[in-house]
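Subject: Predicted fold for DUF4961 domain-containing protein, 339 residues

User T.R. writes:
Posting the sequence so we have a shared reference for the thread.
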Amino acid sequence: MNFNIKIKAKRLWTILACTIIGVIIASCSFKVDKVDQPYTAKVGDVIDITVDFTVVTNENPSQTGPMIFAMLMPVGWKGAENTTIEYTSTKGDGKMKHIPDSEVAAGGSGFNPGGLNWPANLKRKFGIGNNFIEDLEWVVFRSEDVTYGNNETTKGKLFIKLKVGADGNDANVRLAYVITSGRDGLVVNEFGTYYNDFYTDCLSVTGGTTGDLIDFCSPQLGIINPPKSLDNDFTTIVFDSNAATNPLQGADAVYFKGTAVTEDGQTITVDEISDKTKLTETLPGSGKFQKVIWPRKFFNISKTQKLVSLSYYITNASKSVQVGYNNTAEPFKFKFKCN
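User M.O. replies:
I've generated the structure tokens; pasting them so everyone works from the same file.
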């Protein structure tokens, strides 16, 4: 699928970074002409993504600097290790380098409160894009420095190679991209917007080895965040009563009912109507409920035991209604794992 995105910048009285191939110019415009990526892949495939761009600079004096290019993808794909980006342009060719998490993002206190690193500041601004599960990260790259002058038009391409499914899981996910200035960062002021964010349709990755599907693309009645965690991690049970038609829509109180399985095969069931199992509505009338638990304590296991899986339902206060996976009689299921 192709995405045509045009961004026009006003004349800037301060130095604005043109965001393709690292340009810092007082006034410029840039356009992502086309983004091509596949929408199906197998776990372990290296997919090719191509970004065509045009940059027009209209101000003296010439300036030099880097572009920041970020991609949103599942944490388990280990994007820093499994992504390479090269570019060609009428100004020259080069390779982008991954920015370490230790580097504070540009933008100053107004546009990077708290002095966050690039991934954290991007997540603060853009969240998880058009996805519904939190286990995603922004992986950030910097171009080489290039100098641009006045009244110049530059054409070029970014060539991205991304290995998908490094965690072995099937996944449906909407990748997202942000281009911004290495000098200015995620700045918006009276002179313009110094970044561009754009989003793609759902990419389906199949052929995994774990038997699990993480569906970032679809609203979920019930999920556990993060979707990859161990029994000693704090986890959040989430129920969205409005994600699909179900008999708990409109309920003002919902409860957890579930059974955990230990490594040695023991089953432990929690089935009670109490504060222990009650989920809290995130906002009044939202229909979205959640509860944070420490699984080891919640299921009262011993120091020598280890939880490996969990199956559960969400019920009303009288237990007369219970909702399972996709509003079926099947329970929601979760495996405790770190990958």
